[in-house]
Design brief:
- By secondary structure, the protein is of the alpha+beta class.
- It has one domain.
- The protein has 3 helices and 2 strands, in the order αββαα.
- It has helices spanning about 5-15, 35-60, 70-75, and strands spanning about 20-25, 30-35.
- The two termini are about 20 Å apart.
C-alpha cells in the first residue's frame, strides 16, 4: 500500500474521540512514552512546514532565490 493511501485510509477512520486515545511507543533512544493520537499526528505534520521554512531561509542566505515552499499551491498545481 502506498503511504498516501495508508494515511488516507487511517484518517478516514479517525473519530473525534479517537484523537484523544493514548498510544504507547518507544522512541529511537529506547525511551517509552504515551501520547494521544492528536499530538502524534501534529508531530507528523509540523516538521514538514518547519523544514520547508529552513530550506527557503538557507537559499536566501546563500544569495539564491528562495525555494518555492507553498504546499497547498504545489498540491493544486500537482507539482
Amino acid at each position: 500500500m502506498r503511504p498516501a493511501t495508508a494515511w488516507s485510509d487511517y484518517l478516514a477512520g479517525v473519530t473525534t474521540t479517537g484523537l484523544t486515545d493514548s498510544v504507547a511507543y518507544t522512541n529511537l533512544q529506547g525511551e517509552d512514552w504515551v501520547k494521544n493520537t492528536q499530538d502524534l499526528l501534529m508531530h507528523v505534520v509540523f516538521p514538514s512546514s518547519y523544514h520547508r521554512g529552513q530550506i527557503a531561509t538557507l537559499f536566501g542566505r546563500a544569495g539564491h532565490e528562495s525555494a518555492y515552499t507553498d504546499f497547498i499551491h504545489c498540491v493544486r498545481q500537482q507539482i
